[in-house]
Write a structure and sequence with these properties.
The structure is a single chain. Strands 4-3-2-1-5 form a five-stranded antiparallel beta sheet. The N terminus is likely disordered. It is 29% helix and 27% strand. The chain is of the alpha+beta class.
């Protein structure tokens, strides 16, 4: 699997904006790598989503889906040990420091 640079997706922006609206630390902003489907099938890419308890909310690229976290990770071939998780306050800090929606860590 090859890793591609960030493309035309809006996942970092829309999920950060949703976290701003929610302003609730029960939700966690997540950054990780997923294996694409559809037009980017088989390509590993950086991705962002929101977790709430055992659910994943993904509203990127005009979709609005909710998955069980275990199903989402399985479908996207996401390694849970490599996911960066941010509370609302941590996300706000990174956005102020970097002046962008993410990803914020060098290895993302």
């Amino acid at each position: 699997m090859k890793k591609e640079p960030q493309g035309e997706g809006d996942c970092y922006e829309v999920h950060a904006n949703l976290m701003i609206e929610l302003k609730n630390d029960e939700y966690t902003l997540c950054h990780g790598n997923a294996i694409g489907q559809g037009p980017i099938s088989g390509i590993e890419h950086g991705h962002c989503w929101i977790e709430y308890r055992d659910l994943v909310l993904d509203i990127s690229n005009g979709k609005a889906v909710t998955y069980l976290k275990s199903d989402y990770y399985l479908k996207g071939h996401i390694n849970p040990e490599k996911v960066k998780r941010y509370t609302w306050k941590e996300m706000a800090h990174h956005m102020i420091e970097t002046e962008h929606y993410g990803p914020w860590d060098d290895d993302e």
